[in-house]
Amino acid sequence: MTITEKILAAHSGREKVSAGELINAKVDLILANDITAPISITEFKKIGAAKVFDKDRVAFIPDHFAPQKDIKAAEQCKMLRDFSREYDLSLYFEVGRIGVEHALLPEQGLVVPGDLVIGADSHTCTYGALGAFSTGVGSTDVASAMATGECWFKVPESMKFIYRGKLNKWVSGKDLILHTIGDIGVDGALYRAMEFEGEAIRSMSMSGRLTMCNMAIEAGGKNGIIVPDDITEGYVKGRAKRPYKFYSSDKDARYVEVKEYDCSKIPLTVSCPHLPSNTKPAAELSSVSIDQVVVGSCTNGRIEDIREAAEIIKGKKVSPNTRMIVIPATQQIYLQCVKEGLAEIFVNAEAVFSTPTCGPCLGGHMGILAKGEKAIATTNRNFVGRMGDPGSEVYLSNPAVAAASAIKGRIAIPEEVI
Amino acid sequence: MKLKGKVWKFGDNIDTDAIIPARYLNTSDPVELAKHVMEDADKDFPSKVKAGDLIVADSNFGCGSSREHAPIALKAAGIQAVVAKSFARIFYRNAFNIGLPIFESDDASVKISQGDEIEIDADGGVIRNITKGESYTAKPIPPFMQELISTGGLIEWTRKRIKAS
């Protein structure tokens, strides 16, 4: 069995499961945010359950339109708070304690290796980086699981992605996953598990692994997953709030497709409008002028990402034709940025340094684009209207390329500015 | 169940931001959401669509976000069903969970044109193109999904399970 199949089997009380089977599995953690939880709450109440299946395993994280951007958003956030009090949820995160959900939960040790996690947010697939099975579902799925502690799944076929060799300078997990999506397309892994392995993955930090698994959904994947190792152990040790278990894939595990990449041939990569699969080498896009740069999100808002952007922009200024918005993904990362002097670097460079929020990633608030404006962002989607007006454009990149582009006011690679 | 109506045709990779842009997600009121359905794909769509119309699209319909607001907005705008070559997986779950009928058919997706009148025989899995005088086969709906539909959606299904246990 693959690691995905083993985790699903263990949570459905079976010795073995195989691709295509429909199973009912126990979930270790359920999450929803201020956009998706209101529907879950309404639907949960229709079920008529007296309580949630486990008050310590339902996480409500108002991160999308919080700090509350308008009255309607405030009402949605209030629904989460009121429900959390009424049902005594221990994992409700108020503004000041929130972070972007998929950065916050691993950081706080609330998701652990071997877990089965569902979330009413498509980027729930992020936690596969820890060796967990995690996938995005809808609000109604969450409502049902809140009552029963279970969810139905079709066991996905697995696809293996092997990354050989070493990464080029400044190339990171973001470039590997953009390159991969560019190769297989936005439905190239539809309904499938995407298992990442190879020398480049084994030597990659947890931050880069989280970025890669985060974007499995952008290839249509059900989950992204990486077999845990010493790097995983180093990350979860001291954080994990629950016991954890390492699963691995058997040598004779079945994969419907195996893709191999030579990392020495993977350049700094940018996804052009309006699909994540529309990739080009960053170096070929120097004629694209940029109005706004965003560094942050569940994809690239971790401390390593912010450090990388700071390293590029230190002692320089954001182009007068451009605005730059830096958003550490959690309060802990924010504080770390202050302690390390990163916040100062960005403010001195005349960038905005913001409190954690999903904000501009989904065109919510904190940096919306006008018609005709172009942004480069370390986020995960560049669909039409994603960051604002339907006539605006979003390019996706890693933090180093985003920071270099902020300095130049056009898409640029780090070598041009340091 | 037979679903008859006029078709709005869309291409591939219709994402959830196109179905209902995130800027409107500070509410989950179906009536409010329906006012903006598909507007980033076709800005006049919310005013042109009529109750009982159907959508036919290419592959990977509903890709992107997990927002259930997408099928809710389509349903509230009066869309009876969506036919596509394939659906993104969270949209697929959501549609069944909330009771928006969806059908996968390669043939229908290619051959049906904007404005065609079609009739879907949900039980037989046949899509009839009244305008062109053609018929296409839809992929069978998996038994569990049929059970969800006949029970009245996931919430009703869960309610029954809890009562029975």
Question: How is this fold's topology laid out?
Answer:
The complex is a heterodimer of chains A (about 425) and B (about 160).
Chain A: H1 3-11, E1 22-26, E2 29-33, H2 37-47, E3 58-61, H3 71-86, E4 91-92, H4 101-107, E5 116-120, E6 133-136, H5 139-148, E7 150-154, E8 158-164, H6 173-184, E9 193-197, H7 199-202, H8 206-214, E10 223-225, H9 230-236, E11 257-262, E12 269-271, E13 279-281, E14 292-295, H10 297-300, H11 303-313, E15 323-326, H12 331-339, H13 342-348, E16 352-353, E17 374-377, E18 393-396, H14 399-408
Parallel strand pairs in A: 2-3, 2-5, 3-4, 5-6, 8-9, 8-11, 9-10, 14-15, 14-17, 15-16, 17-18
Antiparallel strand pairs in A: 1-7, 12-13
Chain B: E1 2-9, H1 16-19, H2 30-34, H3 45-48, E2 54-57, H4 69-76, E3 82-84, H5 89-98, E4 102-104, H6 106-111, E5 117-121, E6 126-129, E7 134-137, H7 143-151, H8 154-164
Parallel strand pairs in B: 1-2, 2-3, 3-4
Antiparallel strand pairs in B: 1-5, 5-6, 6-7
Protein architecture, described:
The complex is a heterodimer of chains A (418) and B (165). Chain A contains 14 helices and 18 strands. Chain A is an alpha/beta fold. Chain A folds into 2 domains: 3-260, Aconitase, domain 3, CATH 3.30.499; 269-416, Aconitase, domain 3, CATH 3.30.499. In chain A, strand 3 (58-61), helix 3 and strand 4 (91-92) form a beta-alpha-beta unit. In chain B, strands 4-3-2-1-5-6-7 form a 7-stranded mixed sheet. The longest helix of chain B is centred in the last third of the chain and has 11 residues, at 154-164. Chain B is globular and about 50 Å long. The model of chain B has no long low-confidence stretch (mean pLDDT 95). The interface between A and B is large, with 52 and 43 residues.
